[in-house]
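[Meeting: bench + compute handoff]

Bench side (C.D.) handed over the final construct sequence. Compute side (W.E.) agreed to return the predicted structure before the next meeting so the bench team could plan truncations. Sequence as handed over:
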Amino acid sequence: MTTSGQPRTQWLGRWGFMLAATGSAVGLGNIWKFPYMTGEYGGGAFVLVYLLCILAVGVPVMMAEIAFGRRGRGSPIDAVRRVVNESGRSSAWSLFGWMSMLCGFMILSFYVVVAGWSFSYLWKMLTGGLSGGTVEELAAVFGANNANPWNLGFWSTLVTLATMVIVGKGVQEGIEKNVRWMMPGLVIMLLVLIVFGAFSGGFSDAFAFLFSFNTGSLSSEGMLAALGHAFFTLSLAAGAIMTYGSYLPKDTSIARTTLGVALADTVVALMAGLAIFPVIFANGMDPGEGPGLIFMSLPIAFQAMPLGTLFGILFFIMLSMAALTSSISMVEATISWLCDSKGFSRRSAAWSTGIVLWLISTAAMLSFNVGADWTLAGKTFFDWLDYLTSRWLMPLGGLGTVVMAGFVLNINIMRDELGLNPRLYALWLLMARYVSPLGILVIFANVLGLYSVTFSVHWPWLLAILIAMVVLGETLSPRLRQALKTA
């Protein structure tokens, strides 16, 4: 029930949530960052470590977020407050709900600018605006694209408008209806590009780059990258998953749904690698270009191949859809809060939010042109949004979620929501109370640049800390012991 007493809208089915949550997870970063990291840090060995990190850190946190959302049936603020109040705890814990909602909105404020690049390049591909035979010439196009505030502002505004039109129509008619064709459409376009790549002459090199099991390339840096990406890729601690979970029907398995989303996110990311890297290798280009791979190297490759314009258009349509499904998810927490707690209609909440978002994103957009010199402590407004969300709000929000789920709530609440058998619940509780928090602390220390020792030195220490945490925690509280006895 919402604050107004009306029944809360729910997804039409389990697939609605899975497609929406996967769409939230599959964004611009997954299209180039995860495939590149896979090849750089050992191929299949990196994927294996990444999946272990997903299971140890990402999945327990995601399950907790979905459980909070479904139990509280509201925005992150309302859901956390209701669940902790049900446990007889202070409403001050709802600060983590505020943090989650704020984080998602701040990310979206600069994400629409980056998403605008995708739409801009789709238009350039359609109109022949990506002519140029060298990376330097395409870099000049990219620079000119960002240097013009009217151009960059137009495309970021377009992303904002498209996002608000979709979320303004509601959960079923807006979000679910659109992700039901966007996500399958994205997968179909990836498959088309993979088939094309299979005949490009670079597929075998791309496959080896992504899937060779090279443990020698899996350094401490690679393991930390796998751990960090496993947390950030699932859109955790940004309000999206908790809000989407609030629309999840009671009879849907949270565990199976979470594992499905994590698997789909990984598969789509690897498919993106199989779509992109054959083209790169076939044209003798460097697969380690980062963002330049998409906006500078790939357009040159498309020009050099048969039907290159067609496949370039397909690629940037796919990229734009990935960007849009992520932007939809990041604003939903704010829309939900305005509707449930402040009495806004869905449409008025969307457009009110859109106006504020447009103002903040415009300031972020100006960081690339007329506001490039407007800095504080050496960072532009865009940089500060990125820094505060990725290095502070997301790790702290994720840590707060598992601490509440593992230590603060009445043990029966999570047991009831997750619906696991006693042994699996005891395993989840162990992960949520000790393994996930330790993993998040490692991520937190890494993104803040606090590591100056090698992997071989600090991982034994981390293992010792984990053991100490378990011993101390179970000395202070019998909850996990009770769960194990029940098992």
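W.E. noted at the follow-up: The chain is about 75% helix and 0% strand. C.D. will use this when planning the next construct.
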